[in-house]
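The following record pairs a protein chain with its ligand, GBH.
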Amino acid sequence: MFPENFVWGVASSAYQIEGTDAEDARGENVWDAFVREGRIYGGHNADTACDHMHRYKEDFALMQELGITSYRFSLSWSRILPDGVGAVNGKAVAMYRDMILEMKKRGITPYVTLFHWEFPLKLYEKGGWLNEESVEWFGNYARVIAENFSDIAEYFITLNEPQCFIGLGHLSGGHAPGVKLEPAKVFQITHNVLKAHGRAVQMLRQYAKQPIKIGYAPTCGVAYPYTERPEDIEAARSVYFACDRQPIENWTWNVAWFSDPVFLGRYPEEGLKLFAPYLPEITKEDMELIHQPLDFMGQNIYNGYWIRQGADGKPEYVDRPADFPMTACGWPITPECLYWGVRFLYERYHLPIYITENGISCADTVAQDGAVHDPGRIEFLDKYLSCLQRAVEEGVEVAGYFLWTFLDNFEWEKGYKERFGLVYVDYPTQKRIPKDSAYWYREVCRTNGGNLTYRKDFPKR
Ligand code: GBH
């Protein structure tokens, strides 16, 4: 059973759904430039996306109809501060305030993410996250958020998936700003980003108009044990928090480097040794700044990989069979990651945890009967949530679950190719069609997980 106050929600991000118009006075961000460079699948762009900026009233009405009572969404930094710093765009503040009031009117609790990848272009031109001033730029933005929204919102999340916007954005280059920097620069960026997180927490608390709750939403694939033998569990745990799992060109897929400083106030010892040639100066004051008290931990979890103890006593990867289940975008379907992920994280960081994102892309189509039948999504969610329930029943403090995502939307470099929504969006008409999974999820919310085909005897190898 899930605790009575368990939070069931959906998650989204500003750039992926809002769209823009000629009058909105927003500033550009690095994704606008990336789109212009033609680096999106099919030449797609986010100019309209789900047109949520003009349709949020209807969207929240639909959300209410679908029984969803919590909503994690993000604010666009350069919509609010067109230059990243300086003048505030009053239209943006008015729009977001109206959005928040509108969702609250519909019984939906807002969870506000400050940064979901849209770095202001003006500040990127001044060096972006590589410039140490980014710590204060982000802190200043957090102050503006606190001043303008903390009277009507109580939950705030600083950063979404630093692993992605740093690693994909600045190391492998597949996401905006789309550059491939040398590892030392990427470590400098990471250190600045972590300090920016800390500075934002300070500013949010200092300028908040009521007591607020603050968290952080990193990500990473989950190492989970191939069997439940203690030695495999130990092997998986050690790999999950290891720093040597990936080659240096891919080092940001790392849990401990991004979470130990935030929750424990130190970088992992192993990483300090391994990454020594690339590291910037790291001071005691930096670590104190990064290590601000938080109210909850968030983690975006989509999938994991098997680990077991090898014959030599060391952890080893276990290959998946060729017919292993995959999502439409080719991600493995690994429900157990939700159990092991929250369990390992809770053991290490001891904070209540929200799954801030989890979901699946499917090849959804509108059927002859006009509906969207997505049994694959229901099956995915049913299995994943059953594993989450197991963690809850074993005492892991899971506070809530945000399904990615409400509406099909602009899936970053994949454009509109992937559909992750509970609600189908017909882009040419902007018509919304709740998929079968939306009605199924409504029952999950209504019965607090009572309709899950939960099994106590999880398949154990
Ligand atoms: C989320 O990112 C985004 O927050 C969201 O905006 C997006 O729409 C959604 O996914 C769907 O794509 O450690 O090597 O196993 C999740 C993307 C999760 C992909 C972590 C890479 C780890 C790779 N990432 N995953 S690894």
